[in-house]
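User: My collaborator and I are trying to settle a disagreement about how two of our proteins should look. Neither of us wants to argue from intuition anymore, so we agreed to look at predicted structures for both before our next call. Could you fold the first one, then the second, and keep them clearly separated?

Assistant: That sounds like a sensible way to settle it. I'll keep them separate. The first protein:
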Amino acid sequence: FTIMKFKAVTFEDSLFKNCYFEDVTSLTTYFRNCTFIETLFYNTDLEASKFIDCQFDNTTFLHSKKGCQINFDEDYSAYWIYFVNFLGTLAVLPGNIVSALLMDRIGRLTMLGGSMVLSGISCFFLWFGTSEAMMIGMLCLYNGLTISAWNSLDVITVELLPTDRRL
């Protein structure tokens, strides 16, 4: 096993005899009830917690890797991360428009309390997210609702100051 990347692999009841593991990185990879005979682990991130009820006979671990070995270029698309953040930020625009139209009609404190309660409810429904599309939709809803609270909080804070002190 040389220059391999294991992602969510589980080896069970396996025998590794005269094996050579070099430059192996793993993410949620485990060995259960495995036997290692005359095996060399060189420059791997396989640590003791990855081996569950395993037996080692003449096995050597050399130059173990430390720290996080996740490569974000291969595991996560940067485009996707930025696109989801863009959608969440874009959802603030309708929230700003709604808060501007409703601020004087329903009042600052009602707007603050109502938007905080509604954003808390939308945050609660994140628990039931079953797909990426639903999670992105809930993110957009949450961002759209919380901006109303921030806008009303800004107005309330400014109105607490005397008129001659406001900028």
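The second protein, kept apart from the first:
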Amino acid sequence: GDVIHRMLTATQYIAPLMANFNPSYSRNSTVQYLDNGTVFVVQWDKVYLQGKEDLGSFTFQAALHSTGRIVFGYKEIPVPVLQISATQHPVKAGLSDAFMVLNPSPDVPESRRRTIYEYHRVELDTSRISSLSAVEFTPLPTCLQHRSCETCVTSELTFNCSWCHVLQRCL
């Protein structure tokens, strides 16, 4: 979006593993991405926790497929995630989305107050994250996937769909 706010980054994320990583600790540490038009992959390779470099390096990735499928892959997790301190940075894994609304401020008529609404979050059980493991998220069906009025109103995969004749879309 065009608005950057600290709370948006706390509530809008796709995180295979969020912690206080320091990619600049080692010359071998990298954060790389690849986009081939079908899948977008971000890989954290040999990254270390800030101040806990003796624990070893972490290697993991997130793959976002054009179909909506998301895969988190964990190659190297040297310690149980539950043992990672959240003092300096939150430790979490999962998906979250939110939106921000600008409301007029009652105190100052010319200003606006930002309100962030988190509307969905999927948290992974971090005790299950380990080396050589993966987590796959598959999207649920939605009304938007239906391309005709008939499939829209008769679908048993989705619920409460209705056909908009003006837009020629299922909503």
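Some points you might bring to the call about the second protein. The first helix runs from residue 6 to 11. Residues 68 and 139 are 6 Å apart (CA to CA).
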